[in-house]
Amino acid sequence: VVIFVCLLQCIGWITNQAGFSIGGTIEPVSLFSFPIFIALPAMVLCGAIVLFISIVIRQQLAALAVSAAIVAGLYYLSMGPNSALSSTFDLMGFYQLSLPSDLDPGIAEHLSNWLQRAALIILGFGILVISASVHPRPESDKTRSYILVSIFFLGASVALLGSVYFSSLQLIDKHQHWRSSHEAHRTEIFPDIDSINANVDVNPGKILTANVEISFSAPAGRQLEQAIFTLNPAFSIEQIFIMESNSAKKKPDFTFKDGLLIVDLENPLISGKQLTLSVHYTGTPDTGFGYLDSV
Which of 1, 18, 47, 137 would disulfide-bridge 35, Cβ 3.0–4.6 Å? Predict the structure, then answer.
């Protein structure tokens, strides 16, 4: 794998030097994530499974078939419909990787992502030790030690995978709660957005600060007693004002929860009239927000 990655970098460097319109070197963090974060855990676990099966089953064709079935089963679990199981048994690490970004290159966003990859490696070592214990050899006095070591590795991997599974369930519950909160306001009257002016300061990987002015009006033939907007729930609102036509600023009553910013209007906004909302917020956005299907 390392040789293959180095070869890709060499080819990319040559294409850059030659001035080709395609090709190029791989971003360093992505380059590191492929052999270490993606390939290594999968290769350790799959290699350990194949070795164990080949020791237990002496018929090579049968061992190949069983090994392929087990690896295919793991792959199915990692790509199946149950997202908690998919994240837990993610063989290739696709669920663990952060979204690619040139501004903030990273590998994994949460600790559970690293724990999942570590659990696969530990599980692979546990299976290797089991393979050593069942492999026929003249000296058999170490079998007990091998079994104890394998139990330790397997127990550690099960504990780590269990923590990843429950973390995935908590994440799913949080997303479902967001979705339910948004669905509860499905029949509300929402403002028509006329314009948005924003000044956004991004410190990659650390914090985002934004000053946003939203000009909005009531839908035709309707009036608004409150204005409902969506905003990433990981942000915190520092200041919020209603800008009136005479440039006066008023602090409205508002609630911000579950990604819903609900601003109470002092007077109902009738169709044809316009207000401007000024919002200053800061924080690091939750990348799990913004994928609320059917809302």
Answer: 1
Closest CA to 208 of 182, 247, 178, 236: 236
Judge whether 79 and 86 are in contact, CB under 8 Å: yes
CB-facing half-sphere around the CA of 81: CA atoms within 13 A: 0
Paired tokens of 10: 């060499």
Residue 83 token pair: 């997202």
Can you tell me the distance from the alpha carbon of 161 to that of 90, in angstroms, rounded to the nearest whole number? 10
* Tens of pLDDT, residues 200-234: 998 877 889 999 999 999 988 888 999 999 999 99
Cβ atoms of 208 and 283 closer than 8 Å: yes
Dihedral of CA 9/11/14/16: which sign?
A: negative
pLDDT: is 64 or 80 the higher one?
64
List of residues 6+ apart from 171 with CB closer than 8 A: 288
0.85 exceeded by pTM: no
| 43 token code pair | 């290769």
Mean of per-residue pLDDT scores for the chain: 85
Q: Which two tokens mark 157?
A: 């991997």
C-alpha distances in Å from residue 54, one per residue of 64, 71, 215: 8, 14, 68
Question: What tokens were used for 279?
Answer: 């919002």
CB-based burial label for 197 (10 Å; 0-12, 13-18, 19+):
exposed
φ, ψ of residue 190 in degrees (nearest 5)? -100, 150
* Residue 177 structure tokens: 């709660």
The answer to whether 54 and 63 are in contact (CB under 8 A) is yes
Task: For 7-61, give the DSSP string.
Answer: HHHHHHHHHHHHT-SS--PPPHHHHHIIIIIIIHHHHHHHHHHHHHHHHH---HH
